[in-house]
Fold this protein.
Amino acid sequence: MRVAILIHVAAIFLTCHSFANIKTLTPKTDEIVDIKTALGIATIVQMPETVQSAISGDLSAYRIEYLDQAVTIKPLRGSAKTNLYLFTKSRRYILRLAVVPQNLANYVVYIKNRDSGMILRWISNGKTASTPDLSLKLLRTSTTSDGFVLLDAEVTAKTSQTLMPGNFWIWQGKDSKPMQSLFLSRKELRKDQRAMIGISIRKADLKNQPVILELQSPSKSLKIEIPKEALWN
């Protein structure tokens, strides 16, 4: 009887512990959502809509990847703390990330919509640049009310390629401009495979003039000019 009671209590504890690692949140517009992460654990944030762009406050603190509605967050050091903005078609979400012990970490966080918020207005582009190895296409651009420029692009491999963040540059004239964040849907590309690219830039770092998006490839650099009207709308 005692063994049976202990097993029953243990089962209840494990069930409660599992629920503690999984939570559902319905934030108001611009309400800060706390996400507890841990070293050695990948936290998944399931969004109500497809994530279109993301901005991280500290790129060296976390590895952040997103595809469709799922965002994977993994800390790179034990003291990592930062904020993360996620943009969907209908609104912006603000996440506050921190590292905690593994038993307190969120494994899965479901975000639900409560109300509509900031709406991103995208401008379609479609410009392309190609080399024998790669093709770069700028899909669209947008600006946010809090001072960021968002670029969505795609890269298509004509031969097997490896993409790295250091291959991408933003230029105005002869000056390179800092990127606030850069996301690659995949780094290793086989022939005819595509990778989605998301880039965010602070408007304060830009001048009121066109911007050049550059992808450096082994054979030749690919460059696409973005008119200033698309950045200062």
Q: What stands out?
A: Confidence is low (pLDDT under 50) at residues 1-19. Residues 171 and 212 are 5 Å apart (CA to CA). The radius of gyration is 21 Å.
